[in-house]
Amino acid sequence: MNHFVISTNGRSLFSSKRRLLQSSLVYVGIGSNVGDRLDYCQKAFSLLCSSDVGVALVATQKRAGTEACPYNDIVLTAVSSLYETEPTDCPRQDWFYNAVVAVRTTLSPILLLQCCQEIELSLGKNIKIPKGPRTIDLDILFYQDAMIHSPDLIVPHPSALSRRFVLIPMAEIAPDFIPPENQQTIKAICEGISEGSIVRQKQGPEWATVTPHRVIKF
To answer: For the range 146-151, what are the long-range contacts, defined as Cβ-Cβ under 8 Å and sequence gap of 24 or more?
Structure first.
């Protein structure tokens, strides 16, 4: 299996292959249905693969008296096409743009969640209605084969295996992935789902090429 990492100015974000092999494979969902949906998704993607929001995260950790962790230990391995999707939980709102990205990271699940939340805040996320419109969503769908149940984070994401807007892009980039405590692949689950919301492809993976980083193959 080939490993890919994002780099800035030609420098690998992982300090060594050893750290890369110690990292966890994580799938993150991206979604937006307010304003320029494509722009919000592109900005979220770019921030996730950069160190910009890491400065804010480190500052947050210092204020809280917790140990700072190098944010740039997040590297991209795959990105799905961009899909326009019908709202499901709260139908009377604009349609979403959705995608899924696969990353490798040495961050713990909670630190990765904090990174995602910092990105959301920086892009103006402010949900006034539960499950209502939002500028951006970054959801940790799967963190390797971990099962996490905490007040702040549930992994796998509770809706990951029941929503076409998650399963279709997941099946595109990880068709053979078997979720924890499941015997079927993502592709099989996607093919057998009865939930019938409309999911239509808007762009291929090139929607995410706005990031200024380049991809390196190990």
So the answer is: 146/24, 146/109, 146/180, 147/180, 147/181, 148/109, 150/110
Position 93, amino acid: Q
Four-residue CA torsion sign, 171, 28, 104, 154: negative
Residue range 19-47, pLDDT digits in tens: 667 789 999 999 999 999 999 999 999 98
Q: Per CATH, which fold does 4-217 belong to?
A: Alpha-Beta Plaits (3.30.70)
pTM, two decimal places: 0.82
DSSP alpha helix (H) spans, 152-204: 164-173, 186-192
Report the distance separating Cα 199 and Cα 201, nearest Å. 7
Task: Map residue 20 onto helix, strand or coil.
Answer: helix
Question: What CA–CA distance (Å, rounded) separates 217 from 74?
Answer: 15
| Predicted local distance difference test score (pLDDT) of residue 84 | 98
Least Cα distance to 190 among 200, 175, 179, 202 occurs for 175
pLDDT band at 140 (very low <50, low <70, confident <90, very high): very high
